[in-house]
Specification:
This protein has 11 helices and 10 strands. The chain is of the alpha+beta class and about 350 residues long. The two termini are about 30 Å apart. One of its GO terms (molecular function) is ATP binding.
Length: about 350
């Protein structure tokens, strides 16, 4: 039996699942456009889809924010229909043998800081910054990073009065322990500085291949969180960023110097990485590590020039490849289909 949602979205096959419920491929029966459909049981203990749909509405129009196409309740499910996107940065990291080049990390950093800055400008913290929550677009948007999963997002200030939420302690850890800020581990209420510190851990994870507090053995979840927290606090920034450009150390020192209510200087952080990018002689050509693996002819021509700049005959850049790069991927197949 065909399931049609909101009178125009046909439910297709399942393409993923998580704590929120299940994710399906769908199609707009009027236009033929493929979409992503998120389903959550109305009986779930901690429903978040309705809240998340409100966040999508508040953030609409921002670069790298998926378009909310429909939200409603049908039968036993809360249902949200959004843009179908490509693979997550975690998927791509695995595809690239769990290491990204400095060039790829710097091209990503610029967009990632922009996405976090935009959420903050709308009065919200993300509170679960991790590679799985950043997805690449499809087709013409294949080089654009999207920020997803707003289930843990929190309003940190009133948009009219700009009044900031109060400082509090003894908070439970919200988010993913691997990327949580030191203050979050210490039970301090999160603010803008914490999203940015988490982003720093994501960048180092991409560069290093792993973080020093990964793979720690513990009996319970609480013990594991405590071990991660301890290891994180005992690892100096200089050790974490050892043998990588000093800009990464500067990034962390800046984030950790911010007070609870401080507005971060996002431009300073972007400038740190942009200046490094230029100094390294890289070309902002959207040739990421996965582009080179999927389209070796682009990579070889890019690498044959000292600056990493593609030769004039290198063929189309990834930005101009207009056909969808395997819509069926979402979580798995994007890079194996043409």
């Amino acid at each position: 039996m065909d399931h049609v949602i909101g009178a125009k979205f046909k439910l297709g096959r399942k393409i993923g699942s998580g704590s929120f419920g299940e994710l399906y491929l769908g199609v707009n029966v009027q236009t033929g456009e493929e979409v992503a459909i998120k389903l959550e049981s109305v009986k779930t203990k901690h429903p978040q889809l309705h809240y998340e749909s409100k966040l999508y509405m508040l953030l609409q129009g921002g670069t790298g924010v998926p378009h909310l196409k429909w939200f409603g309740v049908e039968g036993d499910y809360n249902i949200m229909v959004i843009d179908l996107l490509g693979p997550s940065l975690e998927d791509l990291f695995n595809y690239c043998n769990r290491k990204f080049s400095l060039k790829t990390v710097l091209m990503l950093a610029d967009q990632l800081i922009n996405r976090v800055e935009y959420m903050h400008s709308r009065g919200f913290l993300h509170r679960d910054i991790k590679p799985d929550n950043f997805l690449m677009g499809l087709g013409r948007k294949a080089n654009q990073v999207y920020i997803i999963d707003y289930g843990l997002a929190k309003k940190y200030r009133d948009l009219q009065t700009h009044k900031h939420i109060p400082y509090r302690e003894n908070k439970n850890l919200t988010g993913t322990a691997r990327y949580a800020s030191v203050n979050t581990h210490l039970g301090v209420e999160q603010s803008r500085r914490d999203d940015l510190e988490s982003l720093g851990y994501v960048l180092m994870y991409f560069l290093r291949g792993s973080l020093p507090w990964q793979g720690l053995k513990a009996g319970t979840k609480k013990q594991k969180y405590d071990k991660i927290s301890e290891k994180k606090m005992l690892t100096p920034i200089e050790v974490l960023c050892k043998s990588y450009p000093s800009e990464f150390t500067s990034y962390f020192h800046y984030c950790r110097s911010l007070r609870f209510e401080d507005k971060p200087d996002y431009s300073y952080l972007k400038r740190l990485f942009r200046d490094l990018f230029i100094r390294e002689g890289y070309q902002f050509d959207y040739v990421f590590d996965w582009t080179i693996l999927k389209y070796p002819q682009i990579g070889s021509s890019s690498r044959s020039r000292p600056s990493g700049k593609p030769s004039p005959n290198a063929g189309p850049s990834a930005e101009r490849i207009e056909r969808p790069l395997g819509l069926s991927f979402y979580l798995q197949f994007w890079l194996y289909e043409d």
